[in-house]
Structure formats: structure tokens, C-alpha cells
């Protein structure tokens, strides 16, 4: 076969990793594809001093790559959703296949991009957009293609997992670990995207679409970050036999699809509860195979490049295939997408960890229990400690059974109104993640 | 697209599961493929009372399925390597694509089968042959296609993992758990294939070929079972911070490829050390992405069917693709296979756990240490216990550093010849499984 000609747009962390991997592993990759993969052009506004690109032609105008008639595959690694979107649409319009690592672009504009690509009969591949180097998109679109997927739960933001892991392993506070993560380069100067769950929400929307055959619906995700998790919550969770992880959860229920990102207590025995540091993992529950889990590096230069190059290989292997004989962008063919609604968080059913400060007086616990009971919520476990020396507030921790979030919220409001309860009730959702 | 017509040969555990999944999930699968998948014929010597196949035509002669002009894909689920091989070759000769779950067939006759398939331009897919429902073959052939794969280590036999898990969790003996596994149907009446590692060796040969681009070489695998693991080894391993797992390990070294199945001590903190019961997992170390892990059910009716159906979907999605635009059978194109040799076990480098019975006399330990030291082997950890009341033999447990197996074997022979050492030295290999 003729060489397959790639144009890389963006020469930052992932772009330079992609160039390095394509170059270093060129022989293995050619043996796998049955053709050489050559980087014919790079589009980058500036050079990257950490990336030796030899004599590869460079354009300062990334759009020149999308216009270059000698390029088969445009690899979009510039990030953001403005220029990147224009670039991808231009590449598609010029009949080029596209590989991208851009989760925000796919989550927010994927429906439009895939429609344009379908019209032109080209591929848009995005394995690197979710969980970095873990081939989770391939697993969902292809490896599990015989299954009805029931739910999935993923640790899909490494920064958040690093922070929670450090809080548990070393007893440190959120702000302390966040500062270290920023110093180590795991977290951005503005950590909002990672810590408040927006990055995870982008990824979750993509996973849910592939799993359930629904259109991408970023605006429907319920998103809650980890910035309000206190060191004591990590400790109490451990005493109860749980770990706190920041999960993206998507579940197909009769009423609709749950799409939610939030801190979650999960039983410590689950394999995914033992995924620590910056590593990612996605647990998928399906009707035929049962649970499967995919673990690996969710970010970083070469881990992300690994996924980008896998997509390049995929596209190259099927370069001349007819469009109807390719794997559909969102796993299901566009004419077969489901209109099953996404549920509002108030209608989601889950269990809860509640932590509150109670006055050290008789009767407070029984009033709390009464409120929960009135709403049909039962208590599965309870921790009540002696007040620290000289204090008159006791921490009270309750694990509830599964209930509808709206009902729990109403009960929590009434608990917060009790005379013996001081301040807000901290609530963290609990998932068993059992098949 | 026209319906894709499948013939299922074999209606046992996996065959009936495959029929059930294809039928139950027909709508999802059609939406993913863009065409219906229909089971046009079943070849089975007898009915399966647990499988309602409706009006599907049945042939008592499985070869009739391979001859049926109205069938696109022959699914071989009869097992064994005699009739199955003949069936697969006949289907290929008739221009049909083949999907099989048969690890022995692929491991022992894959080179011949793939050559025949290449000549006819048809696909032979075998995701279900390794680790049941885990899409590990897809991960190696496609998901990690940008990487040089450095090594992989897998828990790829559920029976063995169940036995070792029970030994650790409940302090039970090997024979006791094996009897239970047989009663539960996890282990065959003749457990040799599972317990002595032959099943794992079949799977390892396939994984190594996909990872390193070498031909299938079943006769070169070093295979050691778990039947000689004593309860006390499990306990001592735990005291040292390890778990014993029956692993298939393949490693690419400068000298050659390591291919070995044996019980292995691995640090308890590794995610794969926490894969328990009948579950499987494969850990893959690659140069770009680093470690990735794939976890799920490695056997059973519908978990295995999940992989069979994924292959059917893959074949259906590319039914009219040109052969050069399909994923190569063994990941690398056949003209590019490597002739890197497989290393004999005596040349493999690893660390060791040694357990021996020593007379409770001064100087025995120092003589053992001297022998190891003379061979350049150092002691990383040691457990020496008081002899039980009334006994004059003490157990002595040594963890060594990494060394060449041949050197270790020579040292062990000399240790066994020492006057103060009684009986044989138990040796179990130790792997850190760190990147």
C-alpha cells in the first residue's frame, strides 16, 4: 500500500508525543498497518523546543494542513472548541479523515461534526478524548458490541483521583494536595475543569453516547466536584468500608438515562476502588459479559499519543473501506440513535452518606431518624462520636439505603432545619457498583 | 445492507450463549452493524435442552454449515482440534469468514489456518479464545497499535485463580478447593488443563504473538501448574507483602521472548494482585501508554458469547472490505513477522521465593546464604520461624533478587544437598510487574 500521510495540528504535549511515537515506532506501526505512516506536515503557531521534528514541513497556519491535498488524515491536537472546530470541519469538507483528542469538541459539537463527516464519507476518530491511553472507546464500540450496556462508572479525571488518593493515603487536606498537584503539573493553574468535574462530564457524555446509542448531550450532565470533600469524610468513609472516588456514572434505566459526575463512596473491595494516583479506570456493566474494567494512564504526552496513534492506525487500516463498512462514530448508526431521555438528578436513585454536626443533647438522632423514616429512607449504618474535649458538637454520619434524590433532598432540608443540627448536611452519593 | 447470515457450529455452553445473545440483543446489534445478523443454520450433533432455537434449521452434520452457500460467517464452537480444524479449513476454502472461541485450535494450528484464510481473503476472528469476554485481543491488535509492547502478564485461567483466591481468603488447601471447584462446575473432572497451566499456555501463546509479532509457538511455552502450591506458601507470601497468582507472562527482551506460565508472587498493591475468584485480567506494559489492564469474566456461557458476537459484529461491519484493509490476524502483517527466538526457561531472569525445611541447628542459614552468594544471588527478605513444639525442622523462606533461572537452579541443587536441609526446596517465581 502507499504510505498514509498524516498532518499533525498542534505541537503541545499531545502533539509532540504523537510525533515522537509515530517516529520511534514507525517500523512496528508499518508492520501492523501494511503501509508506512508518514507525518507530511505539521501545523503549529510556534515551535516546541522539546520536540525535534527533523525536516518535517511546518505551517504556522493550521488550516493549511486541512487544505493540503497530500494529506490523508488530519490530527487535531490544538484543543479548545473554536479554532479546533473550524479546523475539523474544514478537514472534513476537504474529504480528509480526522483524528482528535479533544473531548470538549466532541462532547459539545460532536453531533454536528459527525453529521458533516457522514455527509463526506470520512472518519472522525477520538479514542484519545476519553481516559487517555485506555482503549475504552474501542471497547464500547466494538469489544462489547454484542451487549446491552447497563451502566458504566469511571475514574476519568486523573487530577481528581490524585487528590482523593493523597487525601486518603496521607491524611492531607484538599487544598494542600491541590497545590502540590498544580506544582507537579497534574492540575492546571485554574483547576476548575478538573476539580469541578467539567472535564469528567465531557468524557462521560461521550461514553454514554457510545454505550447507549443516544446523541451527545453535554448540557444534561449533572456535575459536582470534589472541592467540598473534607479530610474527615475520607476517614469516615474508610471506617465504613468505603473509598471516595470522583466518578462519572451513566446508567440506562427504564425511566431514562442517568448522567452524573460526583464524588462517590464505593466499597473498598471493588477493583476500581483500588485505582489510585493519576490513573484512570472505567468499569462497564453489560448484560452478556457482566462487569469488565479498563485501566491505564488517563493523560500525559505519550499515553494520550498512544490513543491518537491507535486511531491513525485504525483509519489507515480502513482507508479505502466504504463508509458503510466502518465502525459508526457513536457506535450505533445515526439513523438508529435512541431518544431515551436523560433523567434530571432529582429523579436518580442512589444511596447516600450524610455527615452533620449535632448538638450533644438527647433526642437529636431520633429526630433525624424520624425525618428519614417519614420519607421512606432507612439507615444502613451510623457513626456517632463523642464530642472532642470542650466541644458540644458531635459529628453524626449516616449511610442510607437507596432512594430517589428528590426525596433525600427534601429530608435533608428538614434535617437542616432541626434545632439540634448545626450548619449544612454534607451529602455524598454511595454506589455499590455490583453487577 | 443485506442481513449478515451466521451459521453456529456447536450448541454447548458457548454455542447456546451465542445464540441467546444474538437473539436477545438483535435490535442493538443491528443498530451497531447497520444490518441484521441472522442465525441461518445451526450445526450440532444433538439438541441442547437448555437452548430454545425456535425454527432455526439444524444440521446434525456440522460440515453442512461450512458448505451452506447462504452463510457468510461460520462460528466454530465445537472445541477440540480435530473436527474443529477440518471444519474451519473447509469454511475458509468455501470463502466464508470464521469466528472461533477455540484457544487450542488457534494456539496449535493458527499459523496454518491464517495462511489458508489469507489465501482465500477471509477473516478468522478469535476474541473469545483468550480471557473470555475481555476484549484483550482487540486491545492488543488495535487499541495499543501505536506501541512497542514490552511485556504482558495475565490471570487467564479462572479455575486456577478461584483456587488460589480461596486458599488465601479462607486458608483452605489446594485439594479441598479443587474438589469444590469441580462440584461448582468451574473445573473439569480432569482438571489438568486448568490446574497444570495448559489452558493458560494456549492463551499466552496467542497473546504473545499479537503483542510481539511472532508466529504462534505453543511448543515453546514453559508451563508450570499450581498443584504444588501449599497453603503455607500462600501465608508466607502474604507475610512478605505478596499474593500468589497463576500468571501467563510474555516479555520481549534483547535475548529473546520469554513465554512462561507459572505461579508467581506479585506485590499485593498491584491492581492485578486484587483480581480474585474466577475473574481474569491481563496487564500490558507498552512503551507509549505504560501499563494498561483489562479485567472481566474469562469464561462462562454469555461472557464468552459476548466476545464471539463482538467478532461477528466486526466481521459484519467489514464484510465487503478488501482483505488488505482488515486488521491482520496476528496484529502484524504476515510478511512482517519477527523471528526473535523464544528463550528457554533456564535463560529467563526473575526473582524467587524459596521455601525449605532446615534442621534447627546453628550454621544452616549461613551455609544457604553462602551458596546463594557464591552464585551472585542476594537475599532480599527472609522468614525463619521457631520450630513447632517437639519438631526439629524449621521452615526457612527466602526472597532473592533477580537472577538467571539456570543459576538459581544450580544453587537450589546445592542447597538441597546440604546436610541441614531436608527434602526439596519449593521455588516460586516473583515478579514486581512494575513499569
Automatic annotation (TrEMBL), chains A, B:
Pfam families: ACT (PF01842), Homoserine_dh (PF00742), NAD_binding_3 (PF03447). Residues 353-430 form the ACT domain. InterPro entries: ACT-like_dom_sf (IPR045865), ACT_dom (IPR002912), Asp/hSer_DH_NAD-bd (IPR005106), HDH (IPR016204), HDH_cat (IPR001342), HDH_CS (IPR019811), NAD(P)-bd_dom_sf (IPR036291). Pathway: Amino-acid biosynthesis; L-threonine biosynthesis; L-threonine from L-aspartate: step 3/5; Amino-acid biosynthesis; L-methionine biosynthesis via de novo pathway; L-homoserine from L-aspartate: step 3/3. Its EC number is 1.1.1.3. Coiled coil: none annotated. Transmembrane segments: none annotated. CDD domains: ACT_HSDH-Hom. Keywords: Amino-acid biosynthesis, Methionine biosynthesis, NADP, Oxidoreductase, Threonine biosynthesis. PROSITE patterns: ACT, HOMOSER_DHGENASE. It comes from the Bacteria. It is an enzyme of class 1 (oxidoreductase). It catalyses: L-homoserine + NAD(+) = L-aspartate 4-semialdehyde + NADH + H(+). NCBIfam families: PRK06349.1 (NF004976). Belongs to the homoserine dehydrogenase family. This is Homoserine dehydrogenase. It comes from Spongiibacter thalassae.
